[in-house]
Amino acid sequence: MSDLLERVAGAPITWGVDGSPGWGYLMDRDRVLREMTESGLSATELGPDGYLPTDPLELREYLSRFDMSIVGGFVPALLYRPEQIETVLEYVTRAAGQLAATGSEVLVLGPSSHRPGYDTPVDMTDAEWSTFLANLRRLEALVTEAGLRTALHPHWGLAIATGQDIERLLDSSDVGLCVDTGHVYLAGTDPVEVVRAARGRVLHVHLKDVDPARAERVRSGEVPFRQSVIDGLFVPLGKGGVDIAGVIKVLEDDGYRGWYVLEQDVSLSEAPPEGSGPMADAIDSVAFLRGLADGGA
Prior knowledge:
7-stranded parallel beta sheet
């Protein structure tokens, strides 16, 4: 794992930047990029549409100020509702072109729900599954045409979330995966087992650790997802219930050489004091990964 830290990127959501309506306070992008670099990260995902410059030339010039690069971006797409698919695919085509122009190799596909936010689980019918898979094939063709690979991101509250969803997806399609250790764990599935089951199809990884007690309250419906995020659902790597080391070992032993994105969902009410908040947690997470790379964790 000698080159592990060279393949660790950040994500704006780790600094509370999410495109969902009413998610929380959005930190200034200059500060977010500066704190990423100060935390030891050399690359980032794109973040919500419009947070970073959308013009590729302007984006490259902006990132050069921080010596950063783009390694992908979360692109939400509602695929099981046929009446919306043409608008959805038009957006995906634009997003794929933007990501390709930045040098990204993957598009991280968010399998959207027709409900707002992430608080209500989705249970697609067989008919909706058929529509989803047919539109997924259309989407993959567009992403491939842009020179990228599609990495579908199972996510709490979206159309693909549970271990059963992931198993059905793997059996019914050839799409690649973005394995998010936190969302897989939150849905009651062992992320180590997922990366084993998806050998050769993991294209991108989001690293999260999770407070086990808070996760159980989300699973039971006692506390909504977003409120639990506000309360501290996601914790620095190595301080929760996810076997981060086990996930990375399986992937590295299988020859994975893609990016690990430090993506710890945060919702802020205001800008934190300099050096605290998301940056402090990111520094702790990078230190944990450094221990793994050095063989000490």
